[in-house]
Design brief:
Elements: E1 3-4, E2 8-9, H1 10-16, H2 20-34, H3 40-43, E3 44-50, H4 60-74, E4 75-87, E5 92-103, E6 116-128, E7 131-139, H5 141-148
Parallel strand pairs: 3-7
Antiparallel strand pairs: 1-4, 2-4, 4-5, 5-6, 6-7
Helix pairs in contact: 1-2, 2-4
Length: about 160
């Protein structure tokens, strides 16, 4: 098992990861910072199981593409910092992270507010053959909508 208690960015963790599972888990977060929607196919298995999938996605991997797109289109200067990372057995990795950015575009049904945001989240992913095959994820979405502000109206 590998444990990392750090506040490195997702990109720094991708470059310094000591195992494939840690690298792929960090790469998941890096996709949001780079807005690389095409990278979803490199990081996630086609038959991905998302245990917390959003409504309306045709498949779990389509849902991940939609999430990366929403963050890319709705926020600028997005940065994920990994606060805690631990590799468990059978390819499982736990990530606790913080995302910061500025709400400059329509995201999650809200028009741009221009407000800075900072939320935490936790991802538990399983990496098999270099791709994420399962993901559990929890984000502070209530905190995000509070930070976007009451002046932001649904788009």
């Amino acid at each position: 098992m590998t444990t990392v208690g750090t506040a490195n960015t997702a990109s720094e963790m991708v470059r310094s990861a000591t195992t494939t599972a840690l690298r792929v888990a960090s790469r998941n977060l890096e996709l949001y910072d780079t807005g690389n929607v095409a990278g979803v196919d490199e990081v996630f298995a086609p038959d991905l199981i998302d245990h917390n999938a959003g409504a309306g996605a045709g498949s779990a991997i389509d849902g991940m593409r939609a999430l990366v797109t929403a963050v890319r289109d709705g926020f600028t200067d997005t940065r994920h910092r990994i606060l805690f990372q631990q590799e468990l057995s059978d390819g499982w990795v736990v990530l606790h992270w913080q995302m910061t950015g500025t709400h400059t575009g329509e995201a999650f049904g809200f028009a741009a507010s221009g407000n800075p945001v900072a939320i935490n989240g936790t991802d538990i992913v399983r990496v098999v053959d270099g791709k994420i095959t399962e993901i559990y994820h929890v984000e502070e979405l209530l905190k995000l909508t509070q930070q976007i502000g009451t002046g932001a109206q649904p788009a």
